[in-house]
Structures are given as structure tokens and as C-alpha cells.
């Protein structure tokens, strides 16, 4: 483990446009304490895109000594579940952040209802009987104004009566909605009398059956921000066109001071998809193990895969905060993971495709211990012991009976060093009926044990190994990208070979590896223990990222 003190802060970077705006607001006296919020809808698990939003919001809190609230956007009772709420809390803490206040949008349903009533009384909202399809059809286009609802000029008294009866449950779902009365000719379609309340007769996970009408997100969110005293509402770029409506709501509801919405580019990553709707489909249809499948971009999947939270925070810092959407190469994320693990993971020898090697001149029944360094990057972490005996396993690819040019591993007439042990030279090999090697015979060269004077003998190849008589059976889950390159529906591009399971042999101490422990399996990659001798491949050793 690292000897550096734990620090969950996002790594320091040059100021970005969000911080420039905050600095200006502070300088001009518009705010003193900075308060942000992270408002996920509890209808799925958090993914790497949410990690960026978390790092931005909590990073602002940390930089300015302010606060950041966690708020569940539970305005849609048909899609939300307490399971998702629990997973969201777990993921935030795992990533290294702690919220100041925890709230639900539903905490403010009474206040939102009162705001809606005040809008009706001010002639700025009305009950509309048009269906959802009719409202959509009459909204107009980018070049044509919308058509006013025939119910737009209902009296205040009639609107108050109908809205009260909506709340009482007198009408069916879809029969009526409450719309803001703004401007049907606005160039921003979001301002063309948007729906702010609809009827939903479903049990709510937090408020039960108290309500049968629910506010729309664009109406609820600015009210929540205003009530909580949020100074800067940081959200992704798709809400930019909704900002005029956000401002309209805060201007017309009695909460001060008004929060300020700032949009940043969302994270798009190659080789993956981050739509919660589509991720849920993958889970529901059994394409993956569950929301924590290591092939998914969910934070729970990345935790199961073995990604360190420090590496994810580093990745979010490196991609920065931009105003324009772009696509980030997943190789950068893998580079951050690999870079962290290279400094912190214990090394171990594991053979994924075992080939038996017999050391003919080593006494039968004898064994000895050799030292294997835990991490060459951190000599202070010392070594661990591995046992060596007459029969060992090496990787099948580390022997070739008919080697290509510049093959420096074990071969007829060749010598190799066994990692941490001896230099051995080839003597013979045996094959099965198909001609596949089954056993290789070698002899060790006396005086070449690592650390002994004769060990300075030069050989071009070093291979890892495990003791056949003192090894652990391990299961290795090897992952490829879940989606193949191409166009069209993602379901048509699911990679059928995204998971490969290998059965291997490992150093005995790995038998007791606890769930979550991370290792570098020499010359293979980085792995995390799942328990019971099973390991997930976190990332390979080869770095495909080029800055």
C-alpha cells in the first residue's frame, strides 16, 4: 500500500470556467459560502459519467471550503427504488466523498405544490386537458411558434379548483396536467408552456400514497436548489437549453437567494454506453451478471473489476472541465488505473496455461524457499517467499519446440532464468498424440540461484513459474470490451467474447487473498481477488494510451 496519507481531494489543476464564474461571484459579493449538490435520480446505478459530476461538485466544495448535498431526485415514483438509493450512497463513499446534507426531492413536495398554487393565483399556470400527444403536436418547431392550448385562458378560480381535484385523485392519469403559462412563441421550445405537474397513481418509495400528482424535473429541481441554498447548480450540457426555464421558476417562486445554473460537458467514453435505460436492459435481459458486472461502466462494476477509486478521481481530473461535448478514449482511464496499480499492487507469480517442467538434477522430495519482491517500485515493502522444487509449472507460451527468430524463452538448446530462482537449460520434452508438449525436462545450472555470486550469468529470458507441489488452483476472469466497434443498435454489437474464464496455478499465498486485494500477476496483468481463489482481471500490462 502507499505510504502517502489518504487524500480524497481531486488532484489540483488550473482553474476552469466553472471556478472562474464562482470566483467572480465571490468577488462581486453575490455569495460567500459555496454550496453545490449531486442530485441523481434513483432509477439505476451510478456510472463513470456520474463520477465526473461527483468530482466536479465535491471538488468545488473542497476547493472553496463549502458544502455539497446529496439529493435523490425521486419525482418519478414508477422508476425509483430504495435499492438504487443505497447503491448510490455506497458508490459516493467508495469514490472518497462525503455529503453535508442528504435530502429527497420528495421532502419538498408540499413546498412545490404551494409554489404551483402561487403561480396559478398569479395567472402564470393553468390546468390543461390536452393529451401528451396533443401537447407535443402543438408545441411548434424551431422555426414555427406553438399553438396555444384552448384551456390556456381558464380563470384562476377554475384552475385552482381543477388543480385541487387533481391532487385529490379525481382524474385519471393523463387526463389533465398543470402547465406553466410562459410564451408559446418563444424561440426556446422548453419555454412554450411546459408541463410542471402530471397525474401518477403509483406508490412512492418515500411518501407512500400521499400524492397522486408529481412535479416535473424542470419545475422541481430549481425549487429544491433554492430551498437548500445551493449557490451553483452544476449540471451536464444537455440542461443548457433548460436554463431559461430554471431561471423562470426561481424568479417566480418565493425563495431567495436564487441559485445559478452552470453547465459542463458530459463524459462520453469509447467502447461503452452510459444510458441508464440501456444498462438496465443489459441487466434485465441477462446479458451481464448484474449492475456490478465488471464489464459495465457502473461504479459498482468498476469496484468489482478492481478499479481503485484514486485512479478514477485522477482520470476525472485529467479530462478536466469543458464546455463542449467530446469523446474520451477509454485507454486514458485504463492508463490511470494501471499507473496507480503499478505503484501499489503486490507482485505474484500465476500461470494461466500451465505446462509442467521437471528439473532433472534437483532432488526428488526436496524443496527450498526463494524470495520474490513484493513491489520493485517500493523496495521498502520487502519480499515474500515462494517454494521451489523438482516439478514446477510455467506458461505454455514460455516454451516452444520450434521457436521463431528472437524467441528468448525456453527452447531446445536454450537457457532461461526462473524468476527469483535458478537458471535452467533445456534437456528434452514429451508430447501428447497431437504433438502438443506436455512435459519439459531441464537441468539447473549450479551456482545461479538469484542472489548467489554465480547468478550474474547472463541469459536473455526470464520466466515466472509456480511450484507444482505447493500451488493454489485459481480461476481468472479475463475481460474484453462489452461492445464491438461499429454502428447501429448496441444490442447487435454485444461482444460474445467479452468474458473468458481461465483455470490456472498460483503461488500458494494467493489462496488466502481477501476480497478486494489487488495484485500484479507477473507478465499477465493486474487482478483483484473475489474470494475463494477467483480473480478478476483489472487491466492488462500493456498501455494503449498515448498522450
Automatic annotation (TrEMBL):
GO terms for molecular function: ATP binding; glutamine-tRNA ligase activity. GO terms for cellular component: cytosol. It is an enzyme of class 6 (ligase). GO terms for biological process: glutaminyl-tRNA aminoacylation. It catalyses: tRNA(Gln) + L-glutamine + ATP = L-glutaminyl-tRNA(Gln) + AMP + diphosphate. InterPro entries: aa-tRNA-synth_I_CS, Gln-tRNA-synth, Gln/Glu-tRNA_Ligase, Glu/Gln-tRNA-synth, Glu/Gln-tRNA-synth_Ib_cat-dom, Glu/Gln-tRNA-synth_Ib_codon-bd, Glu_tRNA_lig_a-bdl, Rbsml_bL25/Gln-tRNA_synth_N. PROSITE patterns: AA_TRNA_LIGASE_I. Residues 33-342 form the Glutamyl/glutaminyl-tRNA synthetase class Ib catalytic domain. SUPFAM superfamilies: Nucleotidylyl transferase, Ribosomal protein L25-like. Its EC number is 6.1.1.18. Keywords: Aminoacyl-tRNA synthetase, ATP-binding, Cytoplasm, Ligase, Nucleotide-binding, Protein biosynthesis. Residues 345-444 form the Glutamyl/glutaminyl-tRNA synthetase class Ib anti-codon binding domain. It comes from the Bacteria. Residues 462-529 form the tRNA synthetases class I (E and Q) anti-codon binding domain. Belongs to the class-I aminoacyl-tRNA synthetase family. This is Glutamine--tRNA ligase. It comes from Candidatus Limadaptatus stercoripullorum.
